[in-house]
Amino acid sequence: MTLEELKTRCENAGFKYAYGRFKKTIEPPHLVAIIADTNNFMADNLVYLKDMPIQLDYTYIDKNIDEQNLIENTILGDLAWNKTEETYLEDEQVWQVSYFFEIS
């Protein structure tokens, strides 16, 4: 999967999506992807394989198991992924779950 394919999957599933951040305030629920780090395979001072660990943040106001299932089964269904526990962000009054996976 590429970043463009991730965007397409998120939007086709009906989520507001941004890479990095939204340019204006967007009401939840929404998804934001960032590259958490890189995990490249290198040899002889060359990068032979680029792996990008992605953090996909799902932010929402009301818990909705159907939306989480849509993310896990449709958007990330063919990828190996992990996720954090649900965290309440008091200052923003929203819930957030982060999904972690790799794309190339």
Can you put this structure into words, describing what you see?
This protein has two helices and eight strands. With 104 residues, it is of the alpha+beta class. 12% of the residues are buried. The chain is elongated and about 50 Å long. Helices cover 20% and strands 39% of the residues. Strands 1, 2, 5, 6, 7 and 8 form a six-stranded mixed sheet that branches. The N and C termini lie close together (7 Å).
List the helices and strands and how they pair.
Blueprint: H1 3-12, E1 16-19, E2 30-35, E3 41-43, E4 46-49, E5 52-60, H2 65-75, E6 82-83, E7 87-89, E8 94-103
Parallel strand pairs: 1-2
Antiparallel strand pairs: 2-5, 3-4, 5-8, 6-8, 7-8
Descriptors for this entry?
104 residues; alpha+beta; six-stranded mixed β-sheet; two-stranded antiparallel ribbon; single chain
Structural class computed from helices and strand pairing: alpha+beta
Strand residue percentage: 35-45%
Instruction: State the low-pLDDT regions, or none.
Output: none
Task: Give the helix tally.
Answer: 2
Q: Tell me about the biggest sheet?
A: 6 strands, mixed
- Whole-number radius of gyration? 15 Å
Oligomeric organization of the protein chains: single chain
Number of E strands: 8
Q: How far from one another are the termini?
A: 7 Å
Task: Produce a short descriptive summary.
By secondary structure, the protein is an alpha+beta fold. Helices cover 20% and strands 39% of the residues.
